[in-house]
Design goal:
Helix content is 40%, strand content 19%. By secondary structure, the chain is α/β, with parallel strands linked by helices. The protein has a single domain, classed as Rossmann fold, CATH 3.40.50.150. It has a seven-stranded mixed beta sheet with strand order 3-2-1-4-5-7-6, with helices on both faces. α4 packs parallel to α5 (84-92). The longest helix has 14 residues, at 57-70. The chain is globular, with a radius of gyration of 17 Å. The structure holds S-adenosylmethionine. S-adenosylmethionine is lined by residues 53-55, 79-82, 84-85, 102-105, 108, 131-132, 151-153. The site of S-adenosylmethionine (SAM) has 19 residues, from α5 and β2.
């Protein structure tokens, strides 16, 4: 059986929702990580526990396919970390497409920059190091977002969603990560800020007449949102 994750990642990146055997089956029947992704996973694992913030290989493939299908001219990522999801998004962009990455960590995004270079994606990615709400607010008023991936501080999910939705093009899509939060969203005994923020956010979207939402159990739970 092919090994998909490093030793450390094997503990951290197993699906919360699927048995290991079934996950292995899914992974062995899907596109494997390439050399750039493998190296990035290894380098990120060296950072310790924070490495679990990185999206999984299957999520990355999924993002690339979604982006390819949508063909966004302008995509936004909120929460870049060491770059795995941004590489996945940028790889799906059309020739004239670009990705704006928002993060606040110079240290983590320095790793991302290195791997953008290695993946030959530098020309289509711009990184802004600032709180993402500021970055979104500073976009020219007529900017249309065709694709957005939201994967940063959970307490701001609703704000990020509203800021992106107000600029989302009619065919655009918002993808939200961690919407199942390792199953804590249905555990009534869990009482922490992030879990409440995610539950609030999920119900905000559910009650939002402007959009339709499909929630998937890939990774840590992903919502796909489009305008009606
Ligand atoms: C879960 S990680 C993103 C993981 C990334 N999508 C990946 O697949 O590797 C969250 C990131 O959000 C960033 N972040 C936290 N608060 C932020 C804020 N207010 N504005 C922008 N980025 C923020 C953190 O620095 C961190 O890199």
């Amino acid at each position: 059986m092919k090994k998909f994750f490093t030793k450390q990642k094997a503990e951290e990146k197993r699906s919360f929702f699927l048995e290991d055997e079934l996950l292995d089956y899914i992974m062995s029947n899907s596109a494997p990580a390439d050399q750039v992704q493998e190296a990035l996973i290894e380098e990120t694992a060296e950072l310790g526990w924070v490495a679990r913030m990185q999206i999984s290989v299957d999520q990355g493939n999924f993002l690339t396919m979604l982006v390819k299908a949508i063909g966004p001219k302008f995509a936004v990522e909120i929460g870049t970390f060491t770059g795995f999801s941004s590489i996945s998004i940028a790889r799906g962009l059309p020739e004239n497409g670009s990705l704006l990455c928002c993060d606040v960590s110079e240290k983590w995004t320095a790793i991302a920059r290195k791997y953008w270079e290695r993946a030959g994606l530098n020309d289509r990615i711009e990184l802004v190091l600032a709180p993402a709400l500021e970055t979104l607010d500073n976009l020219p008023k007529d900017t249309e977002i065709d694709f957005a991936f939201i994967d940063a501080d959970k307490g701001n999910y609703k704000n990020y969603y509203e800021a992106v939705l107000s600029r989302l093009s009619s065919h655009g899509m918002i993808v939200i990560d961690n919407v199942l939060w390792s199953g804590r969203v249905i555990d009534e005994t869990v009482d922490d800020e992030d879990t409440h923020a995610i539950k609030d956010f999920n119900s905000h979207v559910r009650n939002d007449d402007r959009v339709t939402c499909t929630m998937l159990s890939i990774g840590d739970g992903v919502s796909l949102i489009q305008k009606k």
